[in-house]
Each structure stands twice: as C-alpha cells, then as structure tokens.
Amino acid sequence: MLKLMFAAAASDSGKTSVTCGMLSLLSEMGMDPCAFKCGPDYIDPMFHRSVLGVDSHNIDLFMCDKARAKEMFRRYSAGHGACIVEGVMGYYDGLSGSNIRASACDVAETLDIPVVLIVRPKGTALTLAAVIRGLAEFRKPTHIKGVILNDCPEMIYRQFGPVYEKQTGIPVLGYIPHIEGASFKSRHLGLYTAGEIKDLTERIGKIKDAIKQGVDMDRLMKICGSEDIPAEACRTAPVDVSDRPVIAVARDEAFNFIYEESIDTIRDAGADISYFSPLHDGSVPDEASGIYIPGGYPELYAEELENNAAMRESIREAVLSGMPVIAECGGFLYLGKSLADREGVRYEMAGVLPGDAENGGRLVRFGYAELSADKDSMLIKAGERYPVHEFHYWDSTDNGSDLTAAKTLSARKWSCGFASETMYAGFPHLYMAGSPVMAERFVHAAHEFAGRKGNR
Q: Could you read off the pLDDT of 59-117 as tens digits, one per residue?
C-alpha cells in the first residue's frame, strides 16, 4: 500500500492540485486510492471526490482525539491500494503559532505516515536546500521522506535537484512544471467548489500527465510503501436496522459543507440518510424524522432559495412541528428571516429563526472554539464542552444566545446559537465524528419524533 502525506512550508504551494493529480494517476494505475484532508476544510475534499468518485475524509486533531483519528484513518483507508493525505497550511502550523497541535505534522506523527514536501523553487536556488533541511530537522524523528518541486522548469530540476538531495539527505522525487490553466481559483471562503469548475477533469488530467512524466513513481512507492490494511479488519459492528429513523440531509449547490465521516457516524448511531435539495426539491422527504442542513454558499443562491417557496414552507412546518433539526452556518442562515446576496439584495428565507443575514465584509469569529451550555438541549447538556469551528463572512442580526463559544487560546467568548430539545442552529460547525454522542442524541430525538409521527 502506498501511504503518504503531501505537505508544504506554506499555503499556496500547490498541495491540492498535486494531491488531485496524484490521485488521478493512482486511479489510472489501478491502485484504488483513497484521500484525506488535514483540518476542518470542506472544499479540498470535494476536489478529491471529483477525482475518485468516492468520499474523502477529514482528519482534524482539534475536533477529535488521536485515538478516534487513528480509528477513522484505518476504517477509511482499509482495502485501498493507496492513501494520500493532504496537509494544511505550513507543515508545523498548529492551533497556535507556538505549537504543532492539529498541524499537518501532528497528523503525520499520529498516523505514522511518511511526508513528501511540495515546494516551489521560484526565486531561490541553494537557499531552498536550507529550507528543506530546516523543515526536515526542525523536529525529530522526522516523517519527511521526500520532496517534489512544484511549478518548476525541467532545467531547474535537472540542475538543482541533485544539489538539494546532496545538501539535505532528502530524496528529490521529481518535478511538476508550470501548467497553464490548471490552477484552481479562490474566493471569500477559499477555492471555488469542484462542481463549479466546468473543465476540472481536463485540468486534473494535465496535472496527472505532468506527474507521470516528471515524478519517479517507482522511487516514491519504495519510500512510502507500507503493509495493506484488509477491509475486513475495519468493518464496523452491525447496528440493529429495525425501526431506524430517517435523517434528511440537505445537499446541493447551496449546502454542501459536509463531513462524510459525520454522516457515517449518524448511520452508526442507528439512522438512515435521505439526501434532498432545498434548491430543487419541493419538500422535505416524507419519510424524514430529522433534518440536517449543513453549511455552504446559500448567499450565492439566495434568489433561487426564495423562489422555492414550497421547500421553505415545508422546512418551516417540519421544524415548527418539533422535527429535530441541526442547521450549521449556511443552514442556520437559511432558517432565518432573510438573506442578502453579494450585491446586498435581500431575499426571504424559511423564517423559523428571527435573524436577517448579510455580508459582514470580512471573516467573522473565525477559527476553532469550544461550545458549551448552561442548560440541557438536544445535542449539548449543561456543563459539557465540544470542539467546533467557525468560518464565515456573512453574519446575522440575531445569532442566538443559548450557547457559549470560547476561544481555546484566549479569553474571548461570545453567546451564540439556538438550542432546544429539538434544535441546534448556529454558526459553529460541529464534527460529530469526533463527538459521536451528538449523533447518538440527534438520532434518539429523531427516533422519538418518528414514534410521535406514527401515532398521529
């Protein structure tokens, strides 16, 4: 089994494009690869999925503990011939500026996997050897086992690759030249989503061909090979399938910030999943006993969401009837009274919650936090604390006050969220794969609602 992490000295080094190109090549080679992303990123895994046709998963060591991370990594990599983990930010950049917690390095150490650095040689020569050597020797034992020169002319690779290898002792495994038109554009929350890039397959194909030509795959596989993980060793214990409630999960162009492993955690807790589209469908699925509306880009589709009045009314009726609901970030905005688009034009939303949302003009309450409550609710009981993260430009005139979010590395905290016996709605994103008790409580509430619905 080929198993490695692509990491870098800094963001914007090309980790996502190289990861996607490598996944495409490994698929072409018949190695049935799988993918992971370090940190809370929703968008990069969408690119992985577009290549593989299967789910990609997150490994986030703030949102879950190391034992759970290892368990999920083993579960989702079992039975595959290759596993690629995409790092986050700079290799050692962790929760704070002074430690490696939740960094790519922390994930590599936890999972015990080799790391290949993606570095851009532009604007430097021998100095790059010092950078590579510094990264490899900064922390011992090092997991850095190789280097790929990205956005690098072949002449530079031929001239300096052997120099870098001699000066650092780290194998230089190849190069990827500049590929015109193969980059992925960004906007306010990061990259455009994979579904919005019409020629994505063609772009990734160009990167794949460049890797095939410029990277020594035999050497890469020799350095980063490991024992296979049999699929049978990681099968989850069967759950009683009788009387399983159905959770309706919103999934379309507007709502797609979904952790696949959290959906599996809901299934593991005893529920079935039915996907629906607030943009295109007319109502919540009839069989639903719970609703999960994740984050996404509803501000880009505000007019279409308003125009689907039947769905807005269906959501409103379901929530007001007591159907359990989780609505995170963009899903939370959809439950509010109105939502302004990028031009400031305001559109009517579901009207379950009192807030009006508009562009805040900057990142609002960005980063990791811990969520707590003074009173019991569906997901969070009084005194409990759960890791969450926020990442949004839009804000609401009423963010709720049933919960408290607190930064872990400062004294900053704020009231947020609407929480009741049947609702969690707020900007903080949850990670139920790291806190399975939340999924269990959600499924229990849906099961109770299904019983009440059946007795009507």
A: 999 999 999 999 999 999 999 999 999 999 999 999 877 789 999 999 999 999 999 99
pLDDT at 338 over 50: yes
Identify the CA nearest to 370 among candidates 413, 401, 322: 413
Return the H-helix or E-strand segment holding 292: strand 288-293
Q: Which residues pair with 248 in a beta bridge?
A: 274, 291
| Claim to verify: residue 279 and residue 167 sit in the same structural domain | no
Number of separate domains in the chain: 2
The pLDDT > 90 percentage for the chain reads 78
Bond preceding residue 141 cis, omega within 30 of 0 = yes
Helical H segments across 276-400, by residue range: 302-307, 309-320, 330-335
Using only C-alpha atoms, the chain has a radius of gyration, in whole angstroms, of 23
Per-residue confidence (pLDDT) for residue 356, from 0 to 100: 97
Whether 241 maps to a domain, the answer reads no
Q: What is the three-class DSSP state of 114? A: coil
Q: Which of 334, 325, 400 is nearest to 365 (CA)?
A: 400
Q: Is residue 110 part of a domain?
A: yes
CA distances to 12, 90, 102, 135 from 98, rounded to whole Å, are 21, 13, 12, 16
Distance CA 7, CA 94 (A): 13
**In the predicted model, is pLDDT for residue 153 greater than 60?**
yes
* Residues that are catalytic: 329
Q: Can you state the percent helix, strand and coil of the chain, rounding each to 5?
A: 35, 25, 40
Q: What is the pTM of this model?
A: 0.91
The residue range of the domain holding 159 is 2-233
In angstroms, rounded to a whole number, what is the distance separating the alpha carbons of residues 242 and 257?
30
CA–CA distances in Å: residue 371 to residues 196, 346, 407: 33, 30, 9
Structure token digits, residue 339: 């939502």
Whether pLDDT at 150 is above 70: yes
